[in-house]
Automatic annotation (TrEMBL):
Enzyme Commission numbers on file: 5.3.1.23
Pathway: Amino-acid biosynthesis; L-methionine biosynthesis via salvage pathway; L-methionine from S-methyl-5-thio-alpha-D-ribose 1-phosphate: step 1/6
Protein name as annotated: Methylthioribose-1-phosphate isomerase
Coiled coil region boundaries: none
Family annotation (InterPro entries): IF-2B-related, IF-M1Pi, IF_2B-like_C, Initiation_fac_2B_a/b/d, M1Pi_N, NagB/RpiA_transferase-like
Presence of keyword Isomerase: yes
Organism: Mucispirillum schaedleri ASF457
Taxonomic lineage: Bacteria, Pseudomonadati, Deferribacterota, Deferribacteres, Deferribacterales
GO terms, molecular function: S-methyl-5-thioribose-1-phosphate isomerase activity
Residues of the active site: D241
UniProt: substrate binding residues: R50, G51, A52, R93, Q200, N251, K252
Domain of life, source organism: Bacteria
Length: 353
């Protein structure tokens, strides 16, 4: 099974939380134990742990670990500290809805429980974080099952950024159909965009696909049009960080370029995600907050300065692909097609049943 070979982004065992430091991949596989809210906040902000579902999982466990020191306090005080810490962890990255979704789920669990002791409540919250992790595993497996139906023998698949095992609990979202198709014995090629400026495609996607034995070819972001024009790409599958009610979709910067190209070359473009990425409180892509990151990520490459001193830089971490460029969403409930305003809302109701 492919699963055995894949790296794990977040490990929680015997009350100890560790993140694989993805800033060091692919050269070093180092797990860093997480102790304080400040450390967890920084690990998320610095992308030691990254990818929408993984920062949700990290935030949920991170919150639980952070409030353990309050287990001897009265329940009111415990919940007050839980909310304060949750808000703080939520503020580490704004675009992916999964972080606030998971942290708020832990807080709501606490608010809806009737324990008289904070110690007992803490164990309940630990179980809730485990539930989030285990549910994500099942969701990713189902995304893989539905998404694999879109992959045929001899296909070329283009992906952008990393929406694989490193971005979730296990398997991935965009990469899960690829792992499932591999397990089913299909033969295909994957093209991974390198994904400037932080190279999630080169450092992470190439690394995990190669480790799993997938036929993967790395291309620079500006080579996608070439690959499509040469008939190398039959389908595009990417992940996503937040989907607005109308289907506009935030994902790693450069995703919109790929969607525009796919539209030009008439190649189907799919976004894969758990239904928790659908945010019906955000009406359109214009309402999605886009994280702006430090200019040094653009002016430097591998620690070497590659632009003049004092250069003005624009460094948005995400862009929003307009819904009309998206062929469908691959979710744990199946593939969702337009009209998105209706069909995404239906999926959210399914999830709440
Ligand atoms: O900045 P990152 O590396 O966290 O960005 C990650 C992405 O854009 C992924 O495609 C997205 O989170 C989906 S992960 C299953």
């Amino acid at each position: 099974m492919v699963t055995d070979k894949l790296p794990k982004a977040v490990i929680y065992k015997d009350g100890k939380l560790s993140f694989l430091d993805q800033t060091k991949l692919p050269m070093y596989e180092i797990y860093e134990e997480q102790h304080t809210p400040e450390q967890i906040y920084n690990s998320i902000k610095m992308l030691k742990v990254r990818g929408a579902p993984a920062i949700g999982i990290a935030g949920a466990y991170g919150l639980v670990v952070s409030v353990k020191k309050y287990i001897n306090e009265p329940v009111d005080k415990f919940i007050m500290e839980l909310k304060k810490t949750g808000e703080y962890l939520n503020s580490s990255r704004p675009t992916a809805v999964n972080l606030s979704w998971a942290v708020n789920r832990i807080i709501q669990r606490a608010e809806n429980s009737f324990f008289n002791s904070s110690n007992e409540l803490w164990y309940e919250l630990e179980r809730e974080a485990e539930n989030i992790y285990n549910e994500d595993k099942k969701i990713c497996a189902n995304i893989g099952r539905y998404g694999a139906e879109l992959i045929y023998d001899n296909f070329g698949i283009l992906t952008h950024c990393n929406a694989g095992a490193l971005a979730v609990s296990e398997l991935g979202t965009a990469l899960s159909p690829i792992y499932t198709a591999l397990n089913e014995g299909k033969t295909f090629k994957v093209y991974a965009d390198e994904t400037r400026p932080l190279l999630q495609g080169a450092r992470l996607t190439s690394y995990e696909l190669q480790t799993a034995g997938v036929d993967v070819t790395l291309i620079c972001d500006n080579m996608a049009a070439y690959a499509m024009s040469k008939g190398l790409i039959d389908v595009v599958i990417v992940g996503c960080d937040r989907v607005a009610a109308n289907g506009d979709t935030a994902n790693k910067i450069g995703t919109m370029n790929v969607a525009v190209l796919a539209n030009y070359f008439k190649i189907p473009f799919y976004a894969a995600c758990p239904s928790s990425t659908f945010d019906n409180m955000t009406l359109t892509g214009n309402d999605i907050v886009i994280e702006l990151r430090d200019s040094s990520e653009v002016t430097h490459f591998g620690g070497v300065q590659t632009a003049p001193d004092n250069m003005k830089v624009l460094n948005p971490a995400f862009d929003v692909t307009p819904n009309e460029l998206i062929t469908g969403f691959i979710t744990e409930y199946g593939i969702i097609k337009p009209p998105y305003v209706i069909n995404l809302e239906n999926i959210l109701h399914k999830g709440r049943k």
